[in-house]
């Protein structure tokens, strides 16, 4: 059975049904930027794995982070007190809400052995929507 459709009917169908479904699927099923800047990744260097684990557990326990990845064995080269230094460190990659970065920074500063600790945050511009939602479910506003 063939159905005869005019141009106006096809265009109306496309604009009201097909296109909205396509746009919705693109923002919710693929990598999306629906909540751009709502979540952040925070980088913190620590002198060793033990300090990293202590800070990481504290951040998650206190609901300041949903996840902390501890990446051992990085080499940091930096100037401190007019000297060039090179040290082995561990990098913490922390996922949180952007609204919690100040509290997270304060927690790290209070529990970190360095005189001046590195705490750098970068907003997550795009990501897997279910993962971003999970961060939001774990870390309160």
Automatic annotation (TrEMBL):
Molecular function as annotated in GO: copper ion binding
Please give the biological process terms from Gene Ontology that the record holds.
response to metal ion
InterPro entries named in the record: Ion_tolerance_CutA, N-reg_PII-like_a/b, N-reg_PII/ATP_PRibTrfase_C
Where are the membrane-spanning stretches?
none
Family, per the entry? Belongs to the CutA family.
Name listed for the protein in its UniProt record: Protein CutA homolog
UniProt source species: Bombyx mandarina
């Amino acid at each position: 059975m063939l159905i005869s459709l005019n141009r106006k009917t096809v265009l109306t169908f496309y604009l009201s049904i097909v296109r909205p479904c396509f746009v919705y699927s693109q923002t919710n099923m693929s990598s999306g930027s629906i909540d751009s800047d709502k979540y952040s990744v925070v980088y913190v260097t620590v002198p060793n794995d033990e300090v990293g684990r202590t800070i990481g557990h504290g951040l998650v326990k206190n609901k300041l982070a949903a996840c902390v990845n501890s990446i051992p064995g990085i080499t940091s080269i930096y100037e401190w007190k007019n000297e060039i230094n090179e040290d082995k460190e561990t990098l913490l990659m922390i996922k949180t809400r952007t609204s919690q970065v100040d509290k997270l920074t304060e927690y790290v500063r209070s529990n970190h052995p360095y005189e001046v600790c590195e705490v750098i945050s970068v907003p997550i511009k795009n990501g897997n929507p279910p993962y971003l939602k999970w961060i939001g479910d774990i870390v309160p506003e």
